[in-house]
Automatic annotation (TrEMBL), chain A:
Gene3D superfamilies: MetI-like
Descriptive protein name: ABC transporter permease
Record-linked PROSITE patterns: ABC_TM1
Protein source organism: Streptomyces phaeoluteigriseus
GO biological-process terms attached to the record: transmembrane transport
Lineage: Bacteria, Bacillati, Actinomycetota, Actinomycetes, Kitasatosporales
UniProtKB/TrEMBL annotation, chain B:
Protein name as it appears in the record: Sugar ABC transporter ATP-binding protein
SUPFAM superfamilies in UniProt: MOP-like (SSF50331), P-loop containing nucleoside triphosphate hydrolases (SSF52540)
SMART domains linked to this entry: AAA
Annotated ABC transporter domain residues: 3-234
GO molecular function, one term: ATP hydrolysis activity
UniProt xrefs under InterPro entries: AAA+_ATPase, ABC_transporter-like_ATP-bd, ABC_transporter-like_CS, ABC_transpr_FbpC, ABC_transpr_MalK/UgpC-like, Mo/tungstate-bd_C_term_dom, NA-bd_OB-fold, P-loop_NTPase
Alphabetical keyword list: ATP-binding, Cell membrane, Membrane, Nucleotide-binding, Translocase, Transport
Pfam families found in the cross-reference section: ABC_tran, TOBE_2
An example Gene Ontology CC term for this record: ATP-binding cassette (ABC) transporter complex, substrate-binding subunit-containing
From TrEMBL, chain C:
Source organism: Streptomyces phaeoluteigriseus
Domain of life: Bacteria
InterPro entries found in the cross-reference section: Bact_solute-bd_prot1, SBP
Full protein name: ABC transporter substrate-binding protein
This protein's UniProt keywords: Signal
UniProt keyword annotation of Transmembrane helix present: no
Automatic annotation (TrEMBL), chain D:
Protein localization: Cell membrane
A GO biological process held by the record: transmembrane transport
Natural source organism: Streptomyces phaeoluteigriseus
CC annotations in GO: plasma membrane
TM ranges: 12-35, 69-91, 103-123, 161-180, 201-219, 265-286
Keyword Cell membrane: yes
PROSITE patterns: ABC_TM1
SUPFAM superfamilies hit by this protein: MalF N-terminal region-like, MetI-like
InterPro entries: ABC_transporter_permease, MetI-like, MetI-like_sf
Homology family: Belongs to the binding-protein-dependent transport system permease family.
ABC transmembrane type-1 domain boundaries: 66-280
UniProt protein name: ABC transporter permease
Keywords carried by this UniProt record: Cell membrane, Membrane, Transmembrane, Transmembrane helix, Transport
Length: 281, 362, 533, 292
């Protein structure tokens, strides 16, 4: 049925794609150990053989001269990402649960319209939002503060959380809710005790999307803060002047990806266990 | 503490799911609701549990309005046709779940869970997750959870429907024992299986197209099916129903004349009727009415032969395995003394004197 | 598990409420420093070495004065925080950070610096200013934005204007810092466009002979854009310096939303700035009619489109950084823009150190006269005082004295001297003291190189036919429209004339939008500088 | 579950209201500002009628960028879908090093787009970057990646494909892993080949996941702007300008807030309509496919 060449074909394709995916990381890795002269000498790949590696790039992201300090921004990014993701997941899964389990009708507005309202927030070009957000946060005295950024980030993440969780909850039999209620749980307890514990895969996927979008948000964090709160992407972008130090930029890029790679490992573990079944439908 | 439903009605998209359902469920009795698929049985249970809102009608428990009571305060347990358990909890915690909600002490919870699991024969499976159990075991867990709480109302929605035949028989027997000492519990059990309804029920309610069309003890319902519909629902295979006439004490059915008319039909006024005859009361013989075989089912030790006489279909149930082939021409013997007579609207007018003891319990 | 979602909600509400109340408490008074003992002896040696092992070990003497290490270290700013916005690291951003650290160390105050890429800086500075949000005390930005930002700036107090360092700033840069007669920007950098060439190629007898044979002309630093083009074409694509890689004629800033508009103005300056015609280069200041589509500008754009063939690979998408590396790294023979590429070439580790020379921007053999609508046939030079980095203090700042002290410290003689030597800092000569070849020779520059550099810079100061930036409100819109037109012509999407007609149309719209009077009154000041009136 | 009307809003409202409150002000603000002449030197809510909208109608850059976006977003999402689906199929079942591949294929979406775009810019650097170097090693001609419109669009799409194919990959892999086994067994019994099984079983079963993944990617791709900014800043000329980037130039960089508002709203309406229609069409097309 399958030709004997199939495995060869399969591994070739996988390997090609893997090279494409890993290429930029490899390039960033090797560039992060270069200095100006090594960069200007044209593209080289192998340290020692082709260029003399230095640690300048890496030193520069930890407060070295001509660099930045990524530690504080890292902590800020972590706090904002975790807080905003948690709030988005909480509010998002509550709303998604309602949209999955109850029928809403308000004039011509039905459940699917409400879901669309959530998702459609992602269509808004960020440019539209940023100036009004500025005035909104100023009004609340929340400019340049972590709570301010958390609120804004929630607006970005909530649609994602709702989108993932509605689909996920739709895959959980309603009878479980009913049974929990019959077993004496009021609706909120039903949600917390019977549905949420069975939603871990869905929550993980949603959390991953939230973390990715929250962690990597540059646009809003950049424009709604002044000096107090710097997030990691902001810190990295601060390197983007007319003389871009490729080496520092590369080191910073790799540093910023690291925590999310751990997240990818976790998601993959759930995938392998088959626990994500029904997480995305 | 009677649970009383009055005129419960529910229409969805023009289809009646419940139509003026009025019934009283006294405690300490096991009620079986029998009806075909989509007859409204599940809807009725869900309405009683509070999971389904009704359009109109009232529901009271011990005289107080039960419709206003939210689901989680109805002190009701339900076992579903699908094997529904909490996937994230192990067997022990599944059974303990409602007990914890009820705020029982840990000790008491443990005692009741163990007892309940033992009663369904799952004492050794406490630590398993539902997904690691077979279908029958999963349903036992669901049963154990429903029983452990000792709720005032216990609803079972075709709990055996999704099990294979062997398990079904086994669990049915176990249920009989489990329900025998439920004290003041109101138990309502729905099924499509006449035998299950008859065997388990103290009271049988027959549902059809959203209505309760007959209520009575199994014997009453069996002996005196109020209509042709009931007769068809409570018999498996469904009772053979066919048109006929009586004229001067002579009964003509399906193109042949009864040779001798049983006493219970002699006083029928002349006219057109519908007659019913259980499949067990028809047999194949060397002489009789000519019929053509359309379908043969062999189930266990019995053979069901579907035939047509002219246009009228019959099912014949005969013991043992018989070599009858499709298209064979056979001869039927009917037992006139077992004929039920219904008027043209389908209402029972004469019933044979029946010896219930002679009906085999399947 | 049960209460988690609710707890999160409550937490958010609480945090929001707390923050809201905390942020409303503000005091109005200006904060003054206390006195403390100084940390430096007068004239002590200053070096950046202790702030990072990558800094050069160069030492300079602390020059006594109100801004010296000694004087500033006598002020106690502990308990105060200064908020600064600056350009990305390293150009101007790194010295901002470095001097912030030093300032913290010697005054006990706290200085927070945020570094922002060029494209974002304008909006990031202006939005809070316009919203009345006291976001930053000190702002570093390109000086041409003065028209947008001036209304929100605190004038430089007299004490600082009277400091020796300030007195030494050349008149051109004091002019750049002045708005409506008040000095509102604190000069920390001097910028202009000029020409850089590779002397190792230009002075190679073999190349000179080749060039003469081919063109009949002497190989020398180009004096006009036509000569520049001819030379760039001649040398394009060969390996001229024996490093195994091809060299190219010209490197220019061409990436659309980078600083292309400045490169284009450099090319246009000699065609459009006619010393005999007064009243504006970009607009006719009387009518505010755009002149951007007049023949002078069109010819410059024609030139630039022709120059495409002389650019290095990717040269049509060069940002300033690419230009710096392309010339500074020895890939191209000639380039024109700010000092950065030249300083980069002169870095100690550079391959082409002391093989470069600075010269005034090329001129032209004729210049357009818009009153007679004809070309005046005469050699013309028009130095372009391209915007550079400047700094200013917000009017709304409650730490104005600390802010000015920081800027005065930033630009004190010792710091300025050290900053000038670190190419990536982007700090370039702006005081007479910096126009001294001896200073550059001390940095290891050869005499010829240092002299050509100082002569070029000082010569620009002497010129009376200067071009300044369009220092009016909304300058970004004008320049963005210009860059778009230039890019369209470079990409071949439209002819230079069409492209610039489009720009002129855009400009009229922008003027209407912003308000003709507003733009006109600001532009009058620019014209006054250009017309030396 | 209908007897619980009181409780359903308790679940929905916190999220809905939060989003509504966060979004409603910006939306109203934008609507209002689009009728004002708010710009850099006049940051005020005056009223200039529909002037911004009239100007927009004649703004060929804006409309050209929208047409370009249709190609860019549609093209990249299609490529992402095909590759994402292909890779998900390849590492779905038994394959050596399955976990490694899966994690690796997920990682690009974890990276910060602005930062990675800067790295990509170094990759596409015509003389110092590895892209042309590799082409050279393969004996191919160097490509002016960022200075000619064709290659620049390719470079842009490459970055987008690199960054966001993992998103498709994840959704589709999760979808594959949750498929029931029975249809595959049935197909095997019928003796269907790999290709046939894919078209007759896998693809139809994956239709709902596919639609969801494609739509959500289209939404995200329509905002394409960061990589444009870093890689080409819209050039050469305006040949890589997207609406997201053009809005950024006008609305933020030039601070023509009023005009930016008018364009943003128009864009929002256009995108909402387009995406709704596309979603409906895709759903129908794939449902038909699933039914056949």
């Amino acid at each position: 049925m399958r030709s004997r060449l199939y495995p060869v074909f399969k591994y070739t394709v996988i390997a090609l794609w893997a090279c494409f995916v890993a290429g930029p990381f490899f390039w960033a890795m090797t560039t992060s150990f270069k200095n100006a002269n090594a960069v200007q000498g044209g593209p080289t790949y192998i340290p020692w053989a082709q260029y003399e590696p230095t640690l300048t790039g890496w030193r520069n992201i930890f407060g070295g001269a001509g660099g930045i300090d990524v530690i504080d921004p890292f902590i800020n990014s972590a706090i904002i990402t975790i807080a905003a993701s948690a709030i988005s997941l909480a509010l998002g899964s509550l709303a998604a649960y309602a949209l999955s389990r109850y029928r809403f009708k308000l004039g011509f507005i039905k459940n699917s319209d409400i879901v669309f309202f959530f998702v459609s927030q992602r269509i808004m070009p960020p440019v539209v939002l940023v100036i009004p957000f500025f005035y909104l946060l100023q009004w609340g005295g929340l400019l340049d503060s972590i709570p301010g950024l958390v609120i804004v980030t929630v607006a970005l993440l909530l649609p994602i959380a709702v989108w993932v969780m509605v689909d996920f909850f739709n895959g959980i039999p309603r009878e479980i809710d009913e049974m929990a209620m019959l077993d004496g749980c009021p609706p909120f307890q039903t949600f917390v005790r019977a549905i949420l514990p069975n939603s871990l895969p869905g929550l993980t996927v949603a959390a991953m999307f939230c973390a990715v979008f929250g962690w990597n948000d540059f646009f809003f964090a950049f424009r709604l803060t002044f000096t107090e709160v710097q997030t990691l992407p902001q810190a990295v972008v601060a390197l983007n002047s007319s003389i871009p130090p490729w080496w520092t930029l590369s080191a910073a890029a790799l540093f910023g990806v690291a925590p999310l790679v751990l997240l990818a490992l976790w998601v993959e573990r759930l995938l392998s266990k088959g626990n994500l079944s029904g997480a995305v439908r | 503490m009677n649970l009383s439903a009055t005129d419960l009605s529910l229409t969805v998209d023009g289809v009646d799911h419940l139509k003026n359902v009025t019934a009283t469920f006294p405690p300490g009795r096991l009620h079986t609701v029998i009806g075909r698929t989509m007859a409204g049985k599940t809807t009725l249970l869900r309405a009683l549990a509070g999971l389904q809102k009704v359009d109109s009608g009232s529901l009271t428990l011990a005289g107080s309005d039960f419709l206003k009571t939210p689901v989680w305060r109805r002190d009701t347990a339900m076992v579903y046709q699908q094997f529904i358990n909490y996937p994230h909890l192990n067997v022990f915690d599944n059974v303990a779940f409602p007990l914890k909600r009820a705020g029982l002490s840990r000790h008491e919870i443990q005692r009741r869970v163990r007892q309940s699991l033992a009663s369904v024969g799952l004492a050794d499976f406490e630590k398993r997750k539902p997904s690691q159990l077979s279908g029958g075991q999963q349903q036992r867990v669901a049963m154990a959870r429903a029983l452990a709480r000792g709720t005032g109302i216990l609803l079972l929605d075709e709990p055996l429907a999704n099990l294979d035949y062997k398990l079904r028989e086994q669990l049915r027997d176990e249920f009989k024992a489990l329900f025998s000492d439920r004290g003041d519990t109101i138990v309502i059990y729905t099924t499509t299986e006449p035998a299950e309804a008859m065997m388990l029920g103290d009271v049988v309610l027959v549902m059809h197209e959203g209505r309760i069309i007959q209520t009575g003890t199994p014997q009453e319902v069996f002996e005196r099916p109020a209509t042709t519909t009931v007769a068809s629902i409570i018999n498996d295979p469904p009772m053979n129903i066919f048109g006929g006439r009586t004229e001067g004490g002579q009964v003509t059915v399906a193109g042949f004349q009864a040779t001798h008319v049983s006493a219970h039909l002699t006083d029928l006024p002349d006219g057109a009727y519908q007659f019913g005859l259980r499949a067990t009361d028809v047999s194949l013989a060397s002489s009789g009415v000519e019929a053509e075989v359309t379908f043969v089912e062999i189930s266990g030790s019995e053979t069901f032969v579907h035939v047509v006489v002219g246009e009228t279909p019959f099912v014949v149930q005969i013991e043992g395995i018989h070599d009858v082939a499709l298209g064979d021409l056979v001869k039927l013997q009917l037992r006139p003394d077992r004929l039920f007579a219904f008027d043209e609207q389908g209402t029972l007018v004469r019933t044979p004197s029946y010896d219930l003891a002679s009906v085999e319990r399947r | 598990m049960r209460s988690r979602p609710y707890r999160a909600l409550v937490a958010v509400a609480a945090v929001a409420a707390l923050t809201a109340t905390a942020c409303t408490a503000q005091s109005e008074a200006q904060h003054k420093p206390k006195d403390k003992a100084g940390l430096f002896k007068p004239g002590s040696e200053i070096s950046y070495k202790k702030y990072g092992k990558d800094y050069p070990a160069t030492k300079v003497k602390d020059v006594p004065g109100p801004c010296s290490y000694d004087s500033i270290s006598r002020k106690d700013y502990s308990g105060q925080t200064l908020k600064i916005i600056s350009h990305a690291v390293p150009v101007i951003g790194e010295p901002t950070q470095l001097h912030a650290k030093q300032f913290e160390d010697i005054t006990g105050g706290k200085v927070e610096v945020v570094n922002v890429p060029f494209g974002e800086l304008h909006q990031k500075i202006l939005t809070p200013l316009q919203a009345g949000q006291p976001a930053y005390d000190v702002m570093f930005y390109p000086s041409l934005w003065i028209g947008d930002i001036a209304p929100y700036l605190a004038p430089v107090p007299k004490t600082y204007l009277d400091s020796p360092g300030m007195k030494d700033v050349t008149p051109a840069y004091m002019d750049v810092a002045t708005w409506n007669g008040k000095v509102v920007q604190y000069p920390v950098d001097g910028d202009r466009h000029y020409l850089k060439v590779r002397t190792d190629v230009l002075e190679d007898p073999e190349r000179q002979a080749q060039y003469r044979k081919a063109t009949g002309k002497d190989l020398q630093v180009p004096r006009t854009w036509a000569e520049y083009q001819e030379m760039a074409e001649f040398f394009g694509g060969e390996d001229l310096d024996g490093d195994g890689k091809a060299n190219y004629g010209s490197a220019e800033v061409t990436k659309r939303d980078d600083l292309t508009f400045s490169a284009f103005i450099s090319r246009a300056a000699p065609y459009v700035k006619n010393p005999d015609v007064k009243g504006g280069v970009f607009f006719d200041v009387k009518t505010m009619t755009p002149l951007i589509n007049t023949p002078g500008f069109v010819r410059a754009l024609d030139d630039m489109v022709k120059a495409k063939s002389t650019w290095a690979p990717g040269g049509a998408n060069f940002g300033l950084g690419d230009e710096i590396f392309s010339f500074g790294g020895g890939q191209t023979l000639m380039s024109y823009s700010w000092d950065d590429a030249f300083i980069q070439a002169q870095q100690p580790e550079s391959r082409i150190r002391n093989k470069v020379q600075a010269a005034p921007l090329p001129g032209s053999a004729e210049v357009y006269n818009r009153t007679t609508k004809s070309w005046d046939r005469k050699a013309n030079q028009a130095p372009y005082f391209t915007w550079g980095w400047t700094s200013a203090v917000a009017k709304a700042s409650r730490h104005q004295q600390m802010a000015f002290d920081y800027l005065c410290f930033f630009s004190n003689e010792a710091n300025a001297a050290l900053d000038l030597t670190i190419g990536r800092f982007g700090v370039n000569p702006y005081r007479y003291a910096h126009f001294d070849p001896a200073f550059w020779e001390q940095q290891g520059w050869e005499k010829d190189v240092a002299e050509s550099y100082v002569r070029t810079l000082a010569g620009m100061e002497k010129s009376t036919n200067r071009v300044f930036d369009l220092r009016v409100p909304g300058v970004n819109q004008y320049m963005s429209a210009l860059a778009n037109g230039v890019a369209a012509a470079l990409a071949g999407q439209s002819s230079p004339q069409q492209a610039l007609d489009g720009v002129a149309e855009e400009w009229s719209k922008i003027t209407d939008q912003i308000g003709k009077d507003k733009v006109q009154s600001a532009y009058r000041d620019v014209v006054a500088l250009e017309d030396n009136s | 579950m209908d007897g619980l009307r009181r409780h359903k809003s308790m679940f929905l409202l916190p999220g809905l209201l939060t989003l509504f409150l966060i979004i409603i002000f910006p939306l109203l603000f934008t609507i209002r500002v689009s009728f004002s002449g708010w710009n850099v030197s006049n940051p005020q809510m005056d009223f200039i009628g529909g002037a911004n909208y009239t100007a927009m109608l004649h703004d060929s850059r804006f409309w050209a960028s929208i047409t370009r976006l249709l190609l860019l977003a549609g093209g990249t999402v299609l490529i992402q879908y095909v590759i994402g689906f292909g890779m998900a199929l390849l590492v779905w079942r038994e394959v050596h090093g399955r976990r490694f591949w899966r994690v690796l294929f997920l990682v690009p979406m974890m990276t910060t787009p602005v930062v990675m775009a800067a790295i990509w810019q170094t990759i596409f650097h015509e003389s110092l970057g590895p892209a042309n170097d590799l082409l050279g090693m393969l004996g191919l001609t160097r490509i002016p990646w960022l200075t000619e419109s064709g290659p620049a669009l390719v470079a842009l799409m490459t970055v987008e494909v690199w960054q966001w194919t993992p998103f498709m990959f994840l959704l589709l892999l999760a979808g594959l892993l949750s498929l029931p086994r029975e249809p595959f067994m049935a197909a095997a019994i019928d003796g269907a080949g790999t290709w046939r099984t894919f078209w007759k079983v896998t693809f139809p079963l994956m239709a709902p996941v596919s639609v969801a993944a494609v739509i959500i990617r289209l939404i995200e791709a329509s905002k394409l702007s960061d990589s444009v900014y870093v890689l080409t800043s819209g050039g050469p000329g305006s040949s890589t300008e997207t609406p997201g980037y053009y809005l950024y130039i006008k609305g933020l960089r030039d601070q023509q807030t009023g005009y930016g508002g008018a364009m943003s709203l128009t864009y929002l309406v256009l995108m909402t309509v387009t995406l709704t229609v596309v979603a409906a069409l895709l759903t129908r097309a794939l449902k038909l496919k699933g039914a056949s």
